[in-house]
């Protein structure tokens, strides 16, 4: 699989390519080429432009030059402020295929918390963060996720319309959360920022309470990117 992933990277180094071109250059089946390209995109090794074609991504330069991940740098400044405003646990998720990975957290110093460790790999079938990442995922990924999800395609339409998602006891019993998309400088959704905590404290409509602050935090992250 590593050889195939390297082949995908080399193919995009020859010039931007969509899925059909990627299959032609690598000889890989469409499903395999798509899965690898999306996975490489999640980690910043590829970047998909507005025309849908993949290019070599920023992480390649970071690895070569030793530069830190700009999203994590932005998170270190923004997430603690959001935690202090809400008094609740804050997480930042990146999509990895049909899963989401927690890449940064900010936890309140005391009290009952919804602790998600950095590096946790969660399915994209439940939770507000999953809805946000699925709502702006490519159609093929959406179809796979919706096959097992607790939410429907109509829910994703609503998420895109209002710009945030909420959940109550979906991922974990007794936990509510609200999430918003984080975009890069090109306007592409690259992550989901979330606030989560006990239902008894946050309530069953967490979006009403925290959506405005969450959207402001997402905008601050985008500004830093």
From TrEMBL:
<dbReference type="InterPro" id="IPR050707">
    <property type="entry name" value="HTH_MetabolicPath_Reg"/>
</dbReference>
<dbReference type="InterPro" id="IPR014757">
    <property type="entry name" value="Tscrpt_reg_IclR_C"/>
</dbReference>
<feature type="domain" description="IclR-ED">
    <location>
        <begin position="59"/>
        <end position="225"/>
    </location>
</feature>
<dbReference type="GO" id="GO:0045892">
    <property type="term" value="P:negative regulation of DNA-templated transcription"/>
</dbReference>
<dbReference type="InterPro" id="IPR036390">
    <property type="entry name" value="WH_DNA-bd_sf"/>
</dbReference>
<keyword id="KW-0238">DNA-binding</keyword>
<protein>
    <submittedName>
        <fullName>IclR family transcriptional regulator</fullName>
    </submittedName>
</protein>
<dbReference type="Pfam" id="PF09339">
    <property type="entry name" value="HTH_IclR"/>
</dbReference>
<feature type="domain" description="HTH iclR-type">
    <location>
        <begin position="1"/>
        <end position="58"/>
    </location>
</feature>
<keyword id="KW-0804">Transcription</keyword>
<dbReference type="InterPro" id="IPR036388">
    <property type="entry name" value="WH-like_DNA-bd_sf"/>
</dbReference>
<dbReference type="GO" id="GO:0003677">
    <property type="term" value="F:DNA binding"/>
</dbReference>
<keyword id="KW-0805">Transcription regulation</keyword>
<dbReference type="Pfam" id="PF01614">
    <property type="entry name" value="IclR_C"/>
</dbReference>
<dbReference type="InterPro" id="IPR005471">
    <property type="entry name" value="Tscrpt_reg_IclR_N"/>
</dbReference>
<dbReference type="GO" id="GO:0003700">
    <property type="term" value="F:DNA-binding transcription factor activity"/>
</dbReference>
<dbReference type="InterPro" id="IPR029016">
    <property type="entry name" value="GAF-like_dom_sf"/>
</dbReference>
